[in-house]
Amino acid sequence: MLHVKAEVDVETETALGAFVIRKIPAEGQVPVQPITPGSGISDPNNPITTHLKPKIFNLAILDTAPHSLTLSALVNLTNPTKYTVTVPYIDINILTNGTLLGHATVRNLEMSLGHNAFIPVTAIWEPYASNNGATGRELLSQYISGLNTTLTLQTSEASIPSLPSLGRALSKFNVTFPTPRLGSTPPSHDHPPDDPTEPSEPGKDDQKPHFIKDATMHLITSTATFILLSPLSHNTLFITSINATAFYHDEVVGTILYDLPFAVPPVDSHGEGTVTPRLPVDWNLGSVGFEAVKGALGGTLKLKAEADVGVKVGRWGEEVWFRGGEIGAKVRL
User: Fold this and answer.
1) Cβ atoms within 10 A of the Cβ of 321, count?
2) For the residues 287-302, what does the mean pLDDT come to?
3) Are 229 and 239 in contact (CB under 8 A)?
4) Range list of H helices, the chain
5) pTM of the shown model
6) How far apart are CA 85 and CA 81, in angstroms?
7) How many C-beta atoms lie closer than 10 Å to residue 153's C-beta?
């Protein structure tokens, strides 16, 4: 039962006409079925938040500041309850492993039964505002390196300004989901994203980001070029600095130090990436790794890379680390 106390306005018809009486105190008990999927029975081992299945698409950067990003996105999710919801405004914290990184805002939310698609969301990425810059930098580094990362949504007392107690109560029910791919194909109303109530095809949504598409080593000029795939669909990313080491197995092949900024625009409609400038390579002469590179002249060689990279979008900038898996690097004169 839901206990309700309120002031109500009523209209009454009399022989003299219609009258409106305002602010009449009212109190009572309203029967409400438990808000759980399926049977309606509360199950602590199967919380309702596991059935929301949020999917995020079409991320775009709207504005930048030195230590924050304003983003927009479309979200589709499932309402597993028997109730519809109308929320004029809600602001939800974004966390990773319990650490606050920013917040997301939804206005004029109309949640119907079942599948809900194309819900517009605005988010602020600002880990430095809560002194969590190191955690934000670590999450970005793990993400671009293809590691599995997650984000968590959690309400607070400030989430619904008119109902702080509801925001506090809902904070016990977090929603955790894989970090969305920034370069995911935007949905359209003609071709909507998958209904989250339906099972996904194996491997369909488990694609890890791949930012290095190709690499070529040039022996005579001691340089290297790379084809990069930007993780951004709508904004140009700038690489401001590179401090990288290439490995053949565990043997150092060479290092790259480069601090001239260059642009990495969004991937074009043909899926082609951006070719970097020729980056100077300091070969580890006489090493097993360098001998392996020479031996692969005219062919390819599987190399791994570790790097500290400066990145910038608009006024926002950060330095992240990258740990790449093996890539077939071409070896040319």
Assistant:
1) 16
2) 92
3) no
4) 133-144, 164-170, 288-295
5) 0.77
6) 10
7) 18
